[in-house]
Amino acid sequence: MDNLLNIFSNYTRSLELLYLLNNIKETVRLDANDLELKKIKEFCNEQELFLEISDFKLIKITDKGKGGYANIVKRVPLSNPQQGLKHIYISKDKNKSKFLKLLENKNDDRAVGEILDYPKCCVDFFVKNNEEQQKLQNDYILPALSNSDGFEFPFYTNYATRYFDVALLSHFPHSFNCDESIEIARKNIECIKVHSKELADKFENMLKGPVLYTENQGIFVFKNYRLKNNILHYNEIKSTIKNDLLELLNKNKKIEIINKNQIKIGNKILNDIGFMVFT
User: Fold this and answer.
1) Secondary structure of residue 141 in the 3-state scheme
2) CA quadruple 220, 221, 224, 227: dihedral positive or negative?
């Protein structure tokens, strides 16, 4: 795992390669800058993996309040002088890496999702919501929450913690109760466990617990907490941002859950948020 991190620099990308090398995934799509590409090419040659590189560059448009994460990218020609990333397509099957590149060049999101083995329900969900989410910050958490009953879900589908480089899924689940997504996440964490029980335990600990999602004011993960009668008490917060909301949360140490899209902190009511508890 350390070797993968040295090459791919974060867990999100490193784990995709771990799943590929262990035959859990057949094809993966990542992004990389030119400096990283040199190491990645060497790695793929050593592992006898087939690598294709996009014929365009990606300029990231950073989200507000999400720790520098970017869900929206702008494609530009390779000749564009701006610093950017390239999409890379890796597989043990030469045809699959080439085909994935071709499909993305055609902007065929549905076919791309299929070749990446995303559940059909989640691909349909992405395609249905894509136009509207592109107008926002393109992360699909609130639409998935809308499709989910209640606010307590299995930790396997916690996609909000990807803003902390922790997630077991590389697709947007259509619901936090999606059976196919849960099964994919189960296989992934078992694979992690084989290679590093310490990392698997770290992931599970981070994935479990309450999460407060806001579109622009940050993502907040609560630890050392107690939830009873829709009142959340907590002693620790992990946040993507330092702002007035974090200050308010630290001051009150308590949240009243009105519903999964509305909470009360002290005298302040927050609407249009997402509150979830993953167990």
Assistant:
1) helix
2) positive
